[in-house]
Amino acid sequence: MKVVRIQTGDRIAYGVPEFDGIRVYEGSPFVAWEQTDAMVSYEDAKLLAPVFPTKVVCVGKNYVEHAAELNSEVPAEPLIFLKPATAVIGPGAPIIYPRASSNVHHEAELAVVIGKVAHHVRAEEVERVIFGYTAANDVTARDLQFKDGQWTRAKGFDTFCPIGPAIETELDPAEGLSVQARVNGETRQSGSTADMVFGVPEIIAYITDVMTLLPGDVILTGTPPGVGPMLPGDRVDVEVERIGILSNQVAAS
Question: Which pLDDT tens digit goes with each residue over 221-250?
């Protein structure tokens, strides 16, 4: 099942795409929700980020070839860092190119959406705390990342975490999902979740030994090789198999 978050007029609601439009639900899938008779046409629905998390936890260097293109080695355990909730934007929203950087990169990723409070979750039990999966772009000011090693600064600017377009509740990353990034239609990244060094169960177990994850929190699982620069005016598409295409335009600040 695909779940979306939409705005129609002044109303924001969760919904489920159907043939004729988006079926509106009352409430939230993370607490309690109920199907209504309301249907919104695709033309009248503005897609938002499918969730607004309290935090975004990211995993770095989780693909061997991506670590290599950064002249780095794969860490012995998951390398985690945070993006603030204020970095989150949805499909169609602009990625603002900050004045502080001259080398902003795309990073296409599979993202996990947490559905239940998760603390000290064992790897073999992670399915009970996962609501679903979505696509994400871990936008990074690469020059700032290498200049001072402050990953939070380099990756935490407002608009630096596009996610969407939907949450897919029925898929398994271990099957090997295609993860791609295209800039102005040109394929830059093309990888598979089967190549992740640390799988979703290991990642969730590791993170929840450090911090409690809340319903709606998001985990970015790492990016395949091929990261590269984006410029104002570029259109960036992140596509994850069975989830859809997350498309954003880069805009000057």
Answer: 999 999 999 999 999 999 999 999 999 999
Its pTM stands at 0.97
Look up residue 163 and give its two tokens. Answer: 């996610």
Three-state SS for 219?
strand
Q: What is the architecture, at CATH level 2, of domain 56-252?
A: Alpha-Beta Complex (3.90)
Q: CA distances (Å), 88 to each of 7, 10, 196, in order?
A: 16, 20, 23
Task: Fill in the DSSP letter of residue 94.
Answer: P
- The CATH architecture of the domain made up of 2-47 is Roll (2.30)
Q: Are 61 and 196 in contact (CB under 8 A)?
A: no
pLDDT digits (tens, 9 = 90+) for 120-169: 999 999 999 999 999 999 999 999 999 988 899 999 999 999 999 999 99
SS3 state of residue 59: strand
Are the beta carbons of 221 and 138 closer than 8 angstroms? no
Q: Classify the phi-psi angles of 163: left when phi > 0, otherwise alpha if psi is within -120 to 50, otherwise beta.
A: beta
For CATH 2.30.30, the residue range(s) in the chain are 2-47
